[in-house]
Each structure stands twice: as C-alpha cells, then as structure tokens.
Amino acid sequence: MTVLRVAVAQLPNRVGDLEGNAERIIEAMAWAEQEAQADVLVLPELVLTGYPLADLVLHREFVDDAEEALDRLTKLSGRMTTILSTIDRVPPQRSWDTRERDVSIAAKLLCDGEVRGCYHKVLLPIYDLFDEARNFAPGSRPNLVWRIGDVVVGVSICEDMWSPDGPPEAQSAAGAQILLVPNSSPFHRGKARSRLDLTRKVALRNGVPVVYVNFVGGQDDVVFDGGSIIVDGEGTLLARGAEFDEDRFGVDVPVPEARPIKGPLGNVHTRPTPHRAPPGAWNPRPPLDDLEAVWDALVMGVRDYTERNGFKGVALGLSGGIDSAVTAMVAADALGPEGVLAVAMPAPDTPYEARVDAEALARNLGIAFDTVPVDTPTTEADVPDEAEPLTKEDAAVRRERRYARARAVALSDIFDERGYLVLATSNKTHISVGAANLLGDLVGGFAPLKDCPKTLLYDLGRYRNSIAEVCPRRILDMQSSSQATLPEGLPSYEVLDEIVERYVEHSASLKDLIDAGFDPAVVTNVMRSIDDAERIRRYTPPGIKITSRAFDQDRRMPLPNSWHAHRRD
Amino acid sequence: MTVLRVAVAQLPNRVGDLEGNAERIIEAMAWAEQEAQADVLVLPELVLTGYPLADLVLHREFVDDAEEALDRLTKLSGRMTTILSTIDRVPPQRSWDTRERDVSIAAKLLCDGEVRGCYHKVLLPIYDLFDEARNFAPGSRPNLVWRIGDVVVGVSICEDMWSPDGPPEAQSAAGAQILLVPNSSPFHRGKARSRLDLTRKVALRNGVPVVYVNFVGGQDDVVFDGGSIIVDGEGTLLARGAEFDEDRFGVDVPVPEARPIKGPLGNVHTRPTPHRAPPGAWNPRPPLDDLEAVWDALVMGVRDYTERNGFKGVALGLSGGIDSAVTAMVAADALGPEGVLAVAMPAPDTPYEARVDAEALARNLGIAFDTVPVDTPTTEADVPDEAEPLTKEDAAVRRERRYARARAVALSDIFDERGYLVLATSNKTHISVGAANLLGDLVGGFAPLKDCPKTLLYDLGRYRNSIAEVCPRRILDMQSSSQATLPEGLPSYEVLDEIVERYVEHSASLKDLIDAGFDPAVVTNVMRSIDDAERIRRYTPPGIKITSRAFDQDRRMPLPNSWHAHRRD
C-alpha cells in the first residue's frame, strides 16, 4: 500500500510575530525533513502571521512584511513539501458587498526553494467570533490537487472542511488520495469531540485520510487548544496531538490507490528519501475530559494574555469566595506562585471565616498575600456631603458599594504602581444578569472567568483540589448558600445557569424554555435581566471563551433595543 | 412627460420597536395616500425593525414578531404602493461560509391589502461598522422590476447602490424608469456629500431618477442623519430631506419614456388618483456645513442614547477644560438644561480660573451645578499603608491619579443614587494615544466625544458660541496652552490629530507619513502610542461615530499583537 509520511507541527499562535513565527517554522521544517524524514509537513492556518488578524490586514506594511517573511522561508525549503499558510495578495475583487479586497488566506506549497503551489481558502466564516469575510477575498479554485512524491493531495483550510460539499469533496473528486487541512480552531467545551467527528465524517465520505492541524495558545479572548488529528480513509484515528501544548509528530499515512485525475493537477516534485527509518515513536494521549480541558484553557488564556501583553504578573482581590478562589488558582497555575499577588480587602462585616480561607488559599498556593482593609473611616467619606443622594437608600447597600469602590481603587493603584495586570473575578452568570459590578468585581484588565457559569466554578475548584488540595473545603461547600449574592427574583444558580446556557448559547425562546419545564415567571425575569445587562457588557474587560457562545464577539445585541424591553410586557 | 408622485417618509430609527415603528408607518401611509396623494411611498431600510439588528436576528421570536407586524401593515395598504423594508424568512442557504442563513433584508411592495412584490437585498456589507453578511442571506434576483401605475420601477437597498455595476444597473437594463432605494446610512463627516455624489452618478449612469431615503436618529454608537434625496435622470437635485430630523415630502418625479422590458416584471396595480392636487409645498433646506452637522450628530446621539436607555438625565464632571465644556454644551442641547447635572470636583491645585469658568458655563447653560471637592484628606488615604507602592513615584503624579479616582467614585455614586447616566468626557485624541484614564475621564456609561479629535473640540465650542455665547472665552483660548495634558514625547495636538486621522482613519503607513512631511521619530512615537493603547480601548464605553473610522466596531486590532510591538524597533 502506498504511504505518505506526514509531519505535523502544532506550533504556538503568535499574532503578528513574523520573526518569531518564521524561526519556529524553520526549526519545524528542519525537524520534519531531517529527523522525521517526512514527505510533507503540515502547519496550522496562518502559521506565519498568527490568527485572527482582525483589521491588521488593513495595514499594507503588515502584508508587505508577511510577504518578505514568506520569501525567506521559501528559500529554505528543501526536498520535502512544506504546506505553509499565510496571507497572500490577490487581484482586487468584490463579492458579497461593494468593498474591494485584495488579500486571501493561502496555503503555499514550498519545495526546493520555490513556491510550487498555492491554495486560497474558499469559505470565509463570519459568525460567532469569526470575521474573515470582513477583510479577506475568497478563493475560487476549490478543486486544485497536487502530486507530492507518488501521492495526489488536496489542501484546504479550516472552514473549507466544515461544509457538507466543500473543497475537500471537490479535491477528492479531482483525484486527491489524502486531504491536508491547516486550521485555526478556537477552544470551547465539546469542540475536540466535534472536530474528531467532523474529520472522520470527511474521511469516510471521501474514502481518504484527513490530516487536521491546529494551533495552540491564548490570543485575545480565545484559546487555541491544539489536538491535531490524523484519521485514515476508514475514519480510524491514527494520531492525536497534545491538547493545550505544542506538539509534533510524524506518521506514515496509508493512502488509497491512485484515482483518475479530474481537476487541475500541480506537481511539487518532492523527492522521497530512499531508505528511511520508521517515523519516531509517537505517544498517543487520551483526550482530556471536560473539566481538565476547561482548566487548561483558563490557565493558557491567563498565561498568554499576561505574558504577551508584557505584564510581569497579576493582582487580584481574594475574598474567600469561589470566584476569586478559582481566579487565584488559575493564575498560580498559569504564572507560577511568584507571578501572583492576592489582596484581601476585608470590610468590617466580612466574616472571619472568609478572611481565614482567603489567607489559607494564598498560603497553599504560595502566592504573595497582602491585606488592605476597607474599613478605614475614609471609605465612608469618599463622597462629601454636598453630593449626598437625593433618594433614600438602604445604608447597607450603599456601604457595600463603597467597599467595592475602595477595593477597585486599591487594585487600580497596584496596577499603576507595581505594573501588575489586575484580574477581574466576575463570572458569566453575574455578567449575564447584570449582577457584576463595574467598579467592583469587573475592575481589571482581564476577566478570566467571564465565560464560566457560576456552578461550573465549584466543579473547577473540586477538580483543582483533586490534583492537590489547595482550596479550603469551606469555599467549595458554600455552593448551597451562595444564593445571597444574586438580585432578588432570580432562581438558584443551578436553574439560572441552565436558562443562561439555553438563552445565550442557543437562542432559546420563551416558549422553548417553558416547554422544557421552566417556570414562565422565572424565565421571563431571567431573560429580562440578561437583555437589560447588555449595556454594561459593552465595556467589560476581555475574558476567555470556553462555551459555544461567549459575550462580545460571539453575541452582540443592539443597544438600546425596544423589542427586548417590550416583548414580554 | 410621465410623472410618478413619490412620497418620502424619513422616519426615526428605533431598533426592535415593532409596535411603535408600525404606528409611525401606518401614519405615514395614511399621509402619503390621502394628503400627498402619492403613487408610491418610500421608507428607510428595515423601517419596521430598525437598523442595525446585530444578533437579534438569531432570536426566532423576533423574526416571528416582525412577520406578524408586516401582516398587519399589509392589510392596511390601499391603492398606493408602499415600499416597506423589513426582515424576511427565506429558504436556508449557504454562501461565503458553512453557516445556513434563512433571513434576508427585504423590501415588500404593499398594495390593496396584499404583498404584491418582494426584493431581497443582494449586497450585504461587512466592513467598518457593518456586519450584515454575518446574519443575513443575500438576495439573488438583482433585476426584478415592477409596474407601479404607468411607470416601471426598480427597488434596491442601500449597499446595492454603491456598486459600480449592481442591482440598480440590472434594474435599469431590465426596463426600470426610476430607482427607489431605502437606506440605513450612518453619519460621518462628509457623508452627505458622498451620498449626493453617488446618487447623481447612479442617476446619470442609468438615465433615470433615483429616490434615496434614509433613517434619522441615534442608535448605539452611530447616528442616522436623514438627508434623503431625490435626483432626476440628469442628476439634478429635486428634493432633500431635513438632516438630523424627521421629515416627509411628496414630489412629482418626471421619469423617462418607457423602455423595453428585459427582466422579470411584476405588476403592483397601483391606481393613480384621477384628479389630484399638486404635491404640498416642499421647503428645501441648504445642506448643513461640517461643524453644524457634527454638532447635530453629537446632540442627537446623546439624546437618543440617554432617552432610549431609560435614563432621566446625565451627569458629568465639569473641570473648566474644553472636553467637559463641550460635553456639557452638547448634553444641554440634547436634553434641555433640566436633564443635565454638572459636578465640579476641584482639587487643591485646581486653578481658580477653572472653577470660575466651570461655574459660569453651567450658569449660562442653566444646568444644575454641584461642587464636590476632592481635596479632603481622605483621598490621600484611600489605600492604606499596607499597599503602599514598592517603587518610588513622583508624588504629584500619584496625587493627580488619586484625584481622578475620587472624581470617578463621586460620579459613580451619582449614577447609583440618582439614576443619571454618567457621560465620560474623554476625546478621540486621548483615547488614541492612551492618555485617557480608565478610572478618570473614561468613567461613565457613554462617551459622546470618543470619536472627536481634540482640535475639533475648540472649533465645536466656537461654533456653539456663535449661536449663543455660553462657553467662557478662556476655555476656548486654552487651545495653545493645553499641551500639558499629553504624555511626554508627543507632538502638538495639531500635528497629533493629523497623524491620528491618517493612521487610524486611512491606515497610512510610516512611509506614507514620512513622505507627507512628518518627522519620522514623532510619527513612530505616535503610532506606537496608538498601537499600545488598543488594550485599553477594549473596554471603553460606547461613543458617537463622527469620522470615517471610529474605534471598536470600525477598527479592531488583535491583542496582543507582536507586529505592532516590533515592527518599528
């Protein structure tokens, strides 16, 4: 049986780092050609520029710089074919609107110092967090195939593969014996499973092996989780890359017999190594389970956001509650204990147990721990008498707000004076229903738990404790009594999180939710809270996407929006 | 010569207000049919649902509700044709990616209680602030035409018209004697001129009159400025609607002779009124000049954002500087003096003149004026000794920051306790280079001047004083001495604003700017400041777009972004 030796390099996603990316690619090319003795090296989508590029593509200089970097890499290519994805200037074209676009997402086939082939991504996603059709021109030749050694390959890119009848089908029909697919596929819960299902389906549908290569690393509010896979033409998993870590491996992929060529065929002239050793041992890892994956995503997201934005560490308020406890544990795992400063900011009515638990957690993690009480008389006098309220309000509510403000100010001072990135500790549930406080648990430059429902945080805490018991039990046991922090009229966190998931992630209607057994009055109340909080969500700090639909890029409602206000009256 | 009597209703843009919009449409239909005795009524794009809808379309209930509202309006249509734009369910289809979309932007032709025709928008913009291809399916029949009375008309929608060879050309070739175009076209400086140029070009290219109808009103961070226009087949302006105000008018538009029909023709069966009076007198207004238009945009933006989000008024800090002075004048014009609370928050080192000027401005505007000094000893002690900085810092800088924090806290208290929307007073120049302060001039729920360059603010102040002298001269005369508020190493505001405009609005390269005569070191410094401030821009409050490229929706850079960091090293 014919075999194509495929090398996969699951490199880190570093947006704009043309020099660093080029160095990592050169190193991978040398490894793949010399050590793995591969016929072809497959790298992630836009491996040279990083992903997503957003409006960076509008800067012509950046496109120029990327083209220069490609030239340099091309000259270094040898007998092996490198599938290198980057941005590519094309003749200006119009498609779905009147804007001319002249840059495409390309996969270049490099060999012997030359670009021997080029595929332009045909399908450009614009949904959820994706905005590719905004700045890129679509490719129009889905059925290109190339001969690499003895094997005819098809190359397509990420979204191309998710169509039931897309470029992979065109390439298979044109004679491809194997499909090579660079990807930039962000993490959310359950994504690894759907990628495997999809890759199997494409392989089975076309009767050819599929090589799916993904990025790894945190970029902005998404995390790329790696987990590259190779399946054979029967849909059997041949290899899986590490999740949430760089990885590389070479595999001898058996390909079906040559097929009649029915599409435009290029020839790359890869020369196979005559007598090569079997590919290096590859150590398959079982897939991560859900909580492991979420934890690793949070850790990677915090580490990469902090380091890549040039911060030497993070600071956060540690209250003795679950939100700040999970934030602290994630931060310590991400940056090491020396990169984290926890600040307890107790008020006079803060329970003794909370202070004890906060300090115990910090001690267990080995992170720096400061105490800044907000019970000094000064916080009562932040606003002098002249500005005293016109309306009467509950004194306790006002006092609580003053404490939150004083905490926000203290954390902001730490940011200014010590250069620590402040982590906001708020969670998705609170941000959904507007229970998060802009001058409180939302103060900070990054909100790691922004997409984590409250109930998940207890599971995450227990998961982390299962590795090493760092979180005091009392914090995890608070789950049943934590209801007090929600505005009146909202259900338990368990019910609330279910409604949030259905309404925010899956756009469930009121009727859907009533049909599912939820109390109509409760659902109406929750939906209204979520709708009303859209205004606040416009200026919350970025966080880490872990669900199928996070806020901001994934879901943006018009503001103001009368339908939300009136439809349930 | 054949004449088509066209009624134009430039209605307010109220997103999601299906009931209110339906009422306004019914009223316009009655006026157009009975008073204006028109053959056809043209309304703005998505007049029934409002624009933009963002992800509201993902809620099936909203689409259902819009369809119900259309049914009701259809039954009310009479002998006249109403061109009513709304969302429309279509068979699910894929186009530029793998997502199935089943809602289009439609123009329905209503007559005698029935939908007699339907056009689906073909070109769906996704650039700058537009995201239509995200959720809408494109139409595929650009060349539909309809007979309305004796005249064959073509109907297309907004972006369709901006193509050099789009639906209007197809309709003209198919026999259309006039082009009717509903629009949702947001304001920016110079936009009215480019709309008129375009409409003339389309009319001349096709030798037929063009009716261009726009929305009016502030929605989120954009303002729709109205200014609907009718030009004849020679490109002569026949009518122009009010700018920044509702308007309606009827015009007898002369149309060229009937052309051979070469496309699918529908018949609407509009019955002309046999003996009708000439259309009511229409009072053409000259176009607004640049400063008037910007002022009106800011006023409309503040008014609509405040009222539609349910606030009874706004509060802002009034310092005696130009930023807060312009914000206060805009707010007073938007909401009336009774809707504005100005709070002076002087520190011990605040110049006496600034206090005097702030109070004089408030008095001239007739707005409420409070003083909350931030010179109490408490502000020095906000953060107790335990959290004192590890590094030595200039005491003045720290004091200034403490004052800014105290002001932010005071304003936030006013929001919480009096229910006033807090207006942040920062401007585009400061937000560009990172000189805006998140816990200072960026605290608030809305930042009206977010897209206004600093130098423009003085022009705006002088413009407002030309109507009535409300702003103390000293505030306007500070222009030459205001440099002190910028970080070291940045050029004068005049130079800075020019670089910001070229780099942010037009993506100029370093080379472009050097070629234009700017000092390379200065340009490099400014570009770096703009790049570095992207992190902060992720969570600034919304503002009002007045330039061709604002921040946020119009321009989003990846974060972190190594190219920005390294390219100029």
List the helices and strands and how they pair.
The structure is a homodimer of 569-residue chains.
Chain A: E1 3-10, H1 18-35, E2 40-42, H2 60-76, E3 81-93, E4 101-111, E5 114-120, H3 132-135, E6 145-148, E7 151-155, H4 167-173, E8 178-182, H5 191-206, E9 210-213, E10 216-219, E11 222-225, E12 229-231, E13 237-240, E14 247-254, E15 265-267, H6 290-308, E16 314-317, H7 322-335, E17 340-344, H8 352-365, E18 368-371, H9 395-418, E19 421-422, H10 428-433, H11 454-467, H12 473-477, H13 493-506, H14 510-515, H15 520-532, H16 534-537, H17 562-566
Parallel strand pairs in A: 1-2, 2-3, 6-15, 7-8, 8-9, 16-17, 16-19, 17-18
Antiparallel strand pairs in A: 1-14, 3-4, 4-5, 6-7, 9-12, 10-11, 12-13
Helix pairs in contact in A: 1-2, 6-7, 6-11, 7-8, 7-11, 13-15
Describe this structure in words.
- Chain A has 569 residues and is α/β, with parallel strands linked by helices.
- The first copy, chain A, folds into 2 domains: 3-270, 4-Layer Sandwich (Nitrilase/N-carbamoyl-D-aminoacid amidohydrolase); 291-485, HUPs (Rossmann fold, 3-Layer(aba) Sandwich).
- Helices cover 35% and strands 18% of the residues of chain A.
- In chain A, the strands form 4 sheets. In chain A, strands 13-12-9-8-7-6-15 form a 7-stranded mixed β-sheet, covered by helices on one side. A 6-stranded mixed β-sheet of chain A has the order 5-4-3-2-1-14. A 4-stranded parallel β-sheet of chain A has the order 18-17-16-19, sandwiched between helices.
- In chain A, a hairpin with a 5-residue loop joins strand 12 and strand 13 (237-240).
- Mean pLDDT of chain A is 92; it is low at 377-387.
- Chains A and B meet through helix 1, helix 2, helix 3, helix 9 and helix 17 of A and helix 1, helix 2, helix 3, helix 9 and helix 17 of B.
